Description:
Blueprint: E1 2-10, E2 19-25, H1 32-42, E3 46-52, E4 61-66, E5 71-72, H2 76-89, E6 96-100, E7 103-109, E8 115-120, E9 125-126, H3 133-137, E10 143-146, H4 148-151, E11 153-157, H5 161-166, H6 171-174, E12 181-187, E13 197-203, E14 208-211, H7 218-229, E15 233-238, E16 244-251, E17 254-259, E18 261-270
Parallel strand pairs: 2-3, 4-6, 11-12, 13-15
Antiparallel strand pairs: 1-2, 1-18, 3-4, 4-5, 6-7, 7-8, 8-17, 9-10, 10-11, 12-13, 13-14, 15-16, 16-17
Amino acid sequence: MAMRIRIxxxxxxxxxAGNPAGVLLLDAFPExxxxxxxxxxxxxAETAYAHPLPEGGxxxxxxxxxxxxTEVAMCGHATLxxxxxxHTTGAHEGPVRFATRSGVLMATPHDDGSITLDFPTAxxxxxxxxxxxxxxxxxxxxxxxxxxxxxxxxxxELADEKTVHAxxxxxxxxxxxxxxxxxxxxxxxxxALGYDYVSRCFFPNVGIDEDPVxxxxxxxxxxxxxxxxxxxxxxxxxASPRSGRVRTExxxxxxxxxxxxxxxIEGELLA
Length: 271
């Protein structure tokens, strides 16, 4: 069965940056085994599958996300990529409501080309640093927080931005410390550069050693840094080799994530 597939770079306004995602708009979801095999073939951090739902319901499209290794409960960049495809192809006009494993998620396109996602804010719970975490990460934590079941990471604050950039973690060792992985973060050294905090994300448990730009992680980073910096609206830089910026706005139990996306490849998947 031939399927139209697009590769979209999310949380960036230029090709070959941000986080790439596969996006497939379908009439219905095939068997899970098929979805997983396609995600492995695409071999990006996530591949998103969406199909339209009947009118009059609480959502417009059903949406699922798969890494090369497994299905995940929440994914920001592939949601942004899917909303971008729906908007740019005319498959859906205006705000779109996605039915997902994390509830109904809203994506709103804007005239300037950006898209805002409305996601649940991650509940943060301070925890003691697990034994061996500092050695696995290669840096001493200042604070460690659990991010709850939807995100499934440990959020680890480090001493400074330079420490985050310099991380060379032991991915196998990191896998023992959380459901999905580790979010490492620090305050920006120079906010005049246009971002308030920096992060890197390591997710070996779902087959991703380092994720280029992680929308879901920012549902935890937003409340963490908003409390410390005293502002609801912030910009985070995810300092992977591809890099990308996520604008966040904390609204209590919801977090708004805003960014842009670029379609870089479009074709037929012959399978």
